[in-house]
């Protein structure tokens, strides 16, 4: 009977906006955990030192922070979107922008490694999206050739220049990745740390 009552409530259109906010919170939490857990697992075991307990704790903390922030953001965004739509009687594009701005400020405004990674992830996609929109709207002409090779060249050229000469400007996880690829590959002592290990242990 309780299950039937809950299912009946979920079918009520008048509660749709409120229920969408709740489900948005749920989906944000689940998606955040799914995205962060494997990423944190790989990055922690590849690049972080410490005991197994410390590594597992770091993975759990990163996963929780990503999951929580995404859940809070979706909840805030959808709640503000519904409130604006109700106040004005209809949904307009500016509602989405304003709700997301407020949610971004409240939830992702703290400058920490998790939020920083999320913002940089979004920024790259925004730049691609705005470029495509500008072409679609006719603000810039349709390229005669695929511009992606040029974009790839400029991105890699810029990031390696920053890494070589202004490393401190790059995010720590990117610094770690590039150090492994481009600096650690310059150092070896014997076959063990040339092919088997990246760095030989102190005992050697």
From TrEMBL:
Pfam short name (any one): Tim17
Superkingdom to which the source organism belongs: Eukaryota
GO cellular component assignments: peroxisomal membrane
Record-given protein name: PXMP4 protein
Lineage: Eukaryota, Metazoa, Chordata, Craniata, Vertebrata
């Amino acid at each position: 009977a309780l299950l039937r009552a809950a299912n009946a409530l979920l079918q009520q259109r008048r509660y749709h906006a409120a229920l969408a906010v709740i489900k948005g919170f749920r989906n944000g939490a689940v998606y955040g955990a799914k995205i962060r857990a494997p990423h944190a697992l790989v990055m922690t075991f590849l690049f972080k030192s410490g005991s197994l307990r410390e590594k597992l704790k770091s993975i759990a903390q990163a996963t929780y922070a990503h999951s929580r922030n995404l859940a809070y953001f979706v909840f805030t965004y959808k709640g503000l979107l519904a409130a604006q739509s109700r106040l004005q009687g209809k949904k307009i594009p500016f509602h989405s922008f304003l709700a997301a701005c407020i949610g971004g400020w409240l939830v992702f405004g703290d400058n920490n490694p998790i939020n920083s990674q999320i913002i940089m992830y979004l920024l790259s996609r925004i730049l691609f999206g705005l470029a495509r929109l500008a072409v679609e709207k006719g603000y810039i002409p349709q390229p005669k050739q695929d511009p992606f090779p040029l974009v790839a060249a400029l991105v890699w050229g810029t990031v390696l220049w920053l890494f070589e000469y202004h490393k401190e400007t790059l995010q720590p996880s990117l610094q770690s990745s590039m150090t492994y690829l481009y600096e650690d590959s310059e150092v070896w002592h014997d076959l063990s740390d040339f092919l088997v290990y990246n760095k030989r242990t102190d005992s050697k």
